[in-house]
Amino acid sequence: MMDFAYWLPIVWAVILVAAISIYVVLDGFDLGIGMLFALERHPDRRDVMVNTIAPVWDGNETWMVLGGAVLYGVFPGAYATLLPAFYLPIVLMLLALIFRGVAFEFRVMTRGTGREGMWNAGFMAGSAIAAFCQGAILGGVVQGIKVVDGAFAGGPLDWLTPFSILCGLSVMCGYALLGATWLIWRTTGVLEESCRRWAARLAVGLFIGIVAVSLWTPLLHAPYLRRWTDWPNIAFVAPVPVLVVVLGALFVMGLRRGHSRGPFLCALGWFFLCLSGLGITVWPYAVPPGLTLWDVSSPPSSQFFQLIGTAILLPIILTYTIYSYHVFRGKVTETDGYH
Amino acid sequence: MQYAHDPALLLARFQFAFTVGVHIIFPAFSIGLAAYLAVLEGLWLRTGRPVFLDLYRYWIKVFSIVFGMGVVSGLVMSYEFGTNWSIFSKKAGPITGVLLSYEVMTAFFLEAGFLGVMLFGMNKVGRKLHFAATCCVSVGTLISMTWILSSNSWMQTPRGYTIDPATGRFMPADWLAIIFNPSFPFRLVHMGLAAFLSVAFIVGATGAWHMLKARKAGKISSEPVRVMFSMAMWMAAIVAPLQILAGDAHGLNTLKYQPVKIAAMEGDWVSEDHAPELLFGIPNMKTEHTDYAIRLPLAGSLILTHSLNGKVPGMKDFPRDQRPPSPVIFFSFRIMVALGMLMMLVGLWSLWLRRNSTLFTNPVFHRVALCMAPAGFLALLCGWVTTEVGRQPWTVYGLLRTSDSVSPVALSSMAFSMTAFVVVYVLVFGSGLGILVRMLRRAPQEGEHDTPPGHATEILAARMHPGVIDPSTGKGA
């Protein structure tokens, strides 16, 4: 039983990080496309941008619901401390996602009534605010929250620091990059060309963000620094920054040589490495600096019951999610009936 | 009693009630409408009658809007347990959180995964696979309802748990007992029928509106309009009486497991046999008396125990700090029952008109059906108020108080978010309602079937530009 209670939270931490990664990747390019509305003003091309994600965004956002539900069922101690601690950015993010989500339909339904502009703005601002809040929350978790007796004991604006703002801006930049590279893959012509230009600049921005966050994070708490500099850890973690640079080189090459899928995959790789890096940094804490995974876990009977279902259902979900993407594969153009 | 005086707690409760009250409309709408769409597409495939495809295309536009609003308002709910009720989440999460996760994995992904194919994929996957996608979405909505009602019912009638003495957490002991807790089957049936009935009355009212409009213009209403109206009235005639039976059974179940909720719903203070039923009254929690009561002798015992001399509970049997606020649920319950009776009468009336072949020609009935458009949803909301306010002052019935469940969130944050939620919801869902009404005012047309079913671009075009599509040809203007 002791072993069970030790290993189940670790398994779940891996699943949760995987679910969050899938969310970040999938909804990341959705939100990025929303932000790119700021750069692309042409209504037809905006429609193409939306049409590349219209059939799949519902499913993408479901990963976020899964993240919330898993945290609630498997790590209720973390759910119950993190959510009150990040009350304001979470509420702000949810409201932003509401605007973003309904704008998919509303911006077309209100076409010709003079209110389309409002929903286009809602799509753009909603995406930008949601992206910023997600980054700021992530940064806020890494910098740690004040916990007394297993409950949040800080103030409503504790999360708002230069570090969390940097994280928020970096995530905005990263999502926009995902969006731009997704559009390089899925569109043609003028839009694809614009995206290649945007992607180059956004990649520079994201790279600066990654470097800044990476240098700043170890200074937040002493254990973070030791995680990255002590032997033998350093042997295991050193590939992470190296791979970031390698992917950067591949990205530049893919962009220059006109690859359609390469830049997107490199951007995905960056996100994967960043999340892994953060995971390595905060391990084994679920709520830094005080609560470990085991402190916040639900009883093994809960975690085990949920694991059985997840082991069966997650492969099925992935299968039909891939099927759904497969149905809507290929380049989307202005003339193929999507508007 | 911190319960009555803490403004942060009151705001947390009000905010949760507001957001869940807005949210519940959309899943209920989706449950009923997805099933209706599956039936329409199935009938079209089976009979080949174009009218069913016309109706499918008409209602799928509504579905895409309703489903989208359900997704975004539901996302709020999955985080609001933690933002507003962190202590509850921590203690009950090992049970309710797991049930919610199962809901996400078995239902939400299924719905969202196949929604894209359902809305955009007919020309890409073919008729049969498309029908399968519609069915998957419909089944997804039903599975979703099952899990969330299991979780909700567990909060009302908790079973299969132990309480960890050190932390006060609920520990799952028997998952089958947790999922199939005593009130779950009753709540599931009652809620499922409510969703079907609510949508039936929206569809019926839409049909009635277009028949009244056609009549005013001196025309005969089109086939799709008549078919949808007829289908909706069949639904009302069959489901409304069933719903009253289901509600009665649910009431008996509540009497057994939550007698004080029943006493508060009935405004009864003293336990008695040969009890009357109060048709009206104003329950006063302070004086422990129901003022201005209008009593129907013996009916209380008859309704609650199915016998004239059955003993019904009174609120005075229970300590003051365990009674739910009777003035709220006394009225919400009565409004729900009255609407249920009205819906049943409309259903029975439709049977009578059908017999006389005047279902499509009686303007008085059409006006009544139009006015009844929101009846199902209003009854559903009143029912939720009754059962959830009736659960007070507990979150987990008899075990965890609402006042002990609330998050340590500053009053200022709560006030800010409450304001933001109200402003955003009024703007977003108000606009959504406006868009829905505009859509439904456009009549479904015969002839959309001119487009071969292989060309889903037309569905898309119609979905995306309802205003600029000439429905008689299905081609963009």
From TrEMBL, chain A:
Keywords: Cell membrane, Membrane, Transmembrane, Transmembrane helix
Compartments reported by the entry: Cell membrane
Gene Ontology cellular component terms for the protein in this record: cytochrome complex; plasma membrane
One GO BP annotation of this record: aerobic electron transport chain
The keyword Transmembrane helix appears for this protein: yes
Pfam families, A to Z: Cyt_bd_oxida_II (PF02322)
Molecular-function GO term, any one: oxidoreductase activity, acting on diphenols and related substances as donors, oxygen as acceptor
Membrane topology: Multi-pass membrane protein
InterPro entries, alphabetized: Cyt-d_oxidase_su2 (IPR003317)
PANTHER family per the UniProt record, alphabetical: CYTOCHROME BD2 SUBUNIT II
Family per similarity comment: Belongs to the cytochrome ubiquinol oxidase subunit 2 family.
This protein's name: Cyanide-insensitive ubiquinol oxidase subunit II
Annotated organism of origin: Komagataeibacter diospyri
Automatic annotation (TrEMBL), chain B:
GO molecular function, one term: heme binding
GO terms (BP aspect): aerobic electron transport chain
Recorded family membership: Belongs to the cytochrome ubiquinol oxidase subunit 1 family.
Keyword rRNA-binding carried by entry: no
TM segment ranges: 16-37, 58-79, 99-122, 129-149, 188-212, 224-246, 328-352, 364-386, 406-437
Any one annotated GO CC term: cytochrome complex
The keyword Disulfide bond belongs to this UniProt entry's keyword annotation: no
Main location: membrane
Protein's recorded name: Cyanide-insensitive ubiquinol oxidase subunit I
Source organism of this protein record: Komagataeibacter diospyri
Top-rank taxon: Bacteria
The entry's keywords: Cell membrane, Electron transport, Heme, Iron, Membrane, Metal-binding, Transmembrane, Transmembrane helix, Transport
InterPro entries, per the entry: Cyt-d_ubiquinol_oxidase_su_1
Membrane topology: Multi-pass membrane protein
Subcellular location: Cell inner membrane; Cell membrane
